[in-house]
Amino acid sequence: MSVRVRFAPSPTGPLHIGGVRTALYNYLFAKKKGGKFILRIEDTDQNRLVEGAETYITKTLDWLGISPDEGPHTAGNYGPYRQSERKESYIKHAQKLVNNSDAYLAFDTAEELQNLREAAEKKGIRFVYNWENRTDLKNSLSMSSEEVSALIGKKTPYVIRFKSYSKGENKLLSMLDEVRGNVNVDTSLLDDKIIVKQDGMPTYHLANVVDDHLMQISHVIRGEEWLPSMALHVLLYNAFGWKKPVFAHVPLILKPTGKGKLSKRDGDKFGFPVFPLEWDNETPGFKESGYLPEALANYLALLGWNPGGEKELFSLDELVDLFSLKEITKAGGRFDPERCRWFNEQHLHKANPAVVEDSLNQLLKLKGIDSTSVSTAAVVGLVQNRLTLLSDIWEESHFFFIAPSEYNEKAVRKQWKDETNDILSQVMLIIKEAKDTRAETLSTSIKLWASKNDVKLGMVMAPLRIALIGALKGPDIFAVCAVLGKAECTTRILGAIEKI
Predict the structure, then answer these.
(1) How many domains does the chain have?
(2) Which of 24, 112, 181, 421 is least crowded, fewest Cβ atoms below 10 Å from its Cβ?
(3) What is the CA 331 to chain-centroid distance, rounded?
(4) What distance lies between CA 138 and its chain's CA centroid?
(5) Cα–Cα distances in Å, from 69 out to 58, 75, 294?
(6) CB burial of residue 11 (10 Å; 0-12, 13-18, 19+)
(7) How far apart (Å, rounded) are the C-alpha atoms in residues 417 and 424?
(8) Of 339, 369, 399, which residue sits at a domain end?
């Protein structure tokens, strides 16, 4: 069987990190099986569409490196890939269900249904539109064909409902889910879901099943919030006489503490992103917060799936090789922002330095800083292993490009002695007269001078760091000297001597 999976989000806002993981699992499974990963935009609910959301989804998948093989912006043989462009097909299939007595036209108004709900509530029960009352309600099952034709002729609004169960049928529906195992549902308890709305647009349920069949989807991998819909979808497959796909409902991503799934409110509360990319000026994403796409993919993959063994750091290709639906857990994975940062730190330390350098160059350009006098590649070589997020790059490297205008008061009070100015003057001469300004050479020369003159290294190193950086932080100070060069080191040391 040829494996074809789909990620089918609704463009109603930014893509939540839970949806990102669902897309990732679909991608990993497709690539593991040599199959196809399809992006389908489920935009049947036109009232909830948000401008820019579809573009956001596409950009997210591209950033993560899990671009679809087929989709609205990728040619395929099963398009169109937006449900709003497939309406004709849904109506045709809905009519087929009506013709086969598996669905019916319902003319009940919203007010009438609300009255029935309120009456049921007063009796302490819940109103369910199903086999027990459908023939007593205002639909094509309780009317003659003439009455139905007359209502249609008057353009009376109606919906199409699916007959989930009819008296006398086998109530028990047994289904198999790759994650949940056997799932049994009493179909007599189901309501007759609307499959075509009054505006002629299909609901999620009909469009989902019809598209999955026509696009030859072999496996439906989606969030567990859709597990209650599995029975209806299987019943629809049965009514059409179609082969069902393999179902796998993956667990939720839970909030860091407490009950419930991860939400934007949790991100705001604990100070971490929950969307992959920036949505607006007030909603930065993982990318803008300094996360690498491969690190986020690594962390999300393990948040509900366990390949076994002690190894935790994987590339996307390694995740593909290891992925299996069988190892997806039933329990929800709790999102740990610190753990996510740790994964990013590990990937960042192993990343191609060119990635970090590109980020630094973009930042310098944004700040209008001319970096031609300093090798950004050399700077990255010194600070990359000090980063947790790409966004840390300025904090860890700004002193290479901007001389300190002020000095850490606490550090100065502790490290600047009466003899410090004389010591730094001698160190400055050593740097200025050095023929070789490599870090190792400068280190040897300055340490040798200190030894000969009975000057403790602490009297040299700390003040030199303050003079060049402005604080007691940063990488090896001789490496900093080498990157800054003779002239800049001289200028900064003289500046510190004059100001402090």
Answers:
(1) 4
(2) 181
(3) 20
(4) 45
(5) 12, 8, 19
(6) buried
(7) 11
(8) 369
Structure tokens at 340: 């996510």
- Token look-up 């937006």 returns 82
CA-angle at 279, arms to 353 and 268, nearest 5°: 90
- Within 8 A by CB and 6+ apart from 215, the residues are 4, 6, 38, 40, 78
Run of H or E including 184:
strand 181-186
Q: Buried b vs exposed e over 173-196: b needs ≥16 C-beta within 10 Å? A: bebebbbbeebebebbebbbbbbb
Query: Is 193 strand, coil or helix?
Result: coil
Candidate list 87, 261, 264, 486, residue with the active-site label:
264
Residue 35 near residue 41, CB atoms below 8 Å: no
Paired with 172 in beta bridges are 186
CB-based contact 290:390 (threshold 8 Å): yes
Structure confidence at residue 368 as a pLDDT band (50, 70, 90): very high
**452 touches 468 (CB < 8 A):** no
Structure tokens at 4: 């074809």
Per-residue pLDDT tens digits for 273-289: 999 999 988 888 999 99
Residue 302 resides in a domain: yes
Average pLDDT, the chain: 95
How far is 208 from 497, CA to CA, in rounded Å?
A: 73
- 404: how many CB neighbours lie within 10 A of its CB? 18
How many angstroms separate the CA atoms of 84 and 88, rounded?
10
For residues 64-70, give the mean pLDDT: 97
Q: What is the CATH classification number for the domain harbouring 44?
A: 3.40.50.620
**Segment 427-483, tens digit of pLDDT:** 999 999 999 999 999 999 999 999 999 999 999 999 999 999 999 999 999 999 999
**71: β partners:** 74
**Greatest CA separation for the chain:** 112
419: containing domain: 409-499
Contact 87/201 with Cβ under 8 angstroms? yes
Dist. CA 379–CA 479, nearest whole Å: 9
Whether residue 264 lies in the annotated active site: yes
For residue 5, what is the enclosing H or E element?
Answer: strand 4-7
What is the model's pTM? 0.92
Q: In this model, does residue 308 exceed pLDDT 80?
A: yes
**Which strands sit side by side in the sheet containing 103-106, from one edge to the other?**
103-106, 159-162, 194-196
Please give the Cα distance from 45 to 130 (Å, whole number): 24
CATH of the domain at 444: 1.10.10.350
- pLDDT tens, position by position, 71-83: 999 989 999 999 9
Render pLDDT for 126-169 as a digit per residue (tens, 0 to 9).
Answer: 999 999 999 999 999 999 999 999 999 999 999 999 999 999 99
